[in-house]
Design goal:
The protein is an all-alpha fold and 242 residues long. Helices cover 81% and strands 0% of the residues. The protein is built from twelve helices and no strands.
Length: 242
Amino acid sequence: MNISIRGWLLQGWKYFLLTRWISVLFSSLFVVVGAAIYWLLVSYDLGLITYPFLSGFLIIAPVLATGFQRVARMLNKGQSPRFRDLVLGISEGTPGIWFLILILFVCYLIWVTDAIVIYGMYFGVNAIPINLELLTDDNLRSQLFSYLVFAGIMGFVLAFMGFAVSVFSIPLILHQRKNFVSAVHTSVTTVFRNKLLMMRWALTLAILVMTTLVIALPLLVIVLPVTGYASYAAYVELLEAG
């Protein structure tokens, strides 16, 4: 892992420890919603549909970081943030933030719709429960592998596009009051100017978030704020310190 990325995560962890109670409470709201959706899908034997919902989460995750961006800036200035600062983080933005959120949510809806179509290509309209038969049945195993790979590639492409557009544009709009076009342009050019670093950063975020979503959903109450605060550290190092 690149030293800068390690430093961003350490800074994110430091900010989390300073705000652990309000950060956990705020993140818990999203964990509860995610758990409810997962339970609903599994109860109807649609567990495989959770895959695009989980991978698509990476497209809209930057939107959730707006509150963490505000709190991180306050901590950087020596101020004491409260829970309301996490909730009101998005209200700091100009209309550009809302337009960016709209774009990301449209991308997310496109991705989920395409993923459901892909699911239908391999499994039809049948509900496929998650059990050992998926691995023991040769036909189902082959379909499952193709579905996960094909959907995963599409999800990665859309998620990286969303990452490039939003990773720095959100803090630029929030902290520097940049307009939408200028913020997105700066974000995309910064990502491609630091291609290897940003690919490692995107991969790090994807691994942390996806592993947590798949293996230990409750830990998202920690991973979400840590990565949110770390994103602020990345912004400061690349666009403010520079």
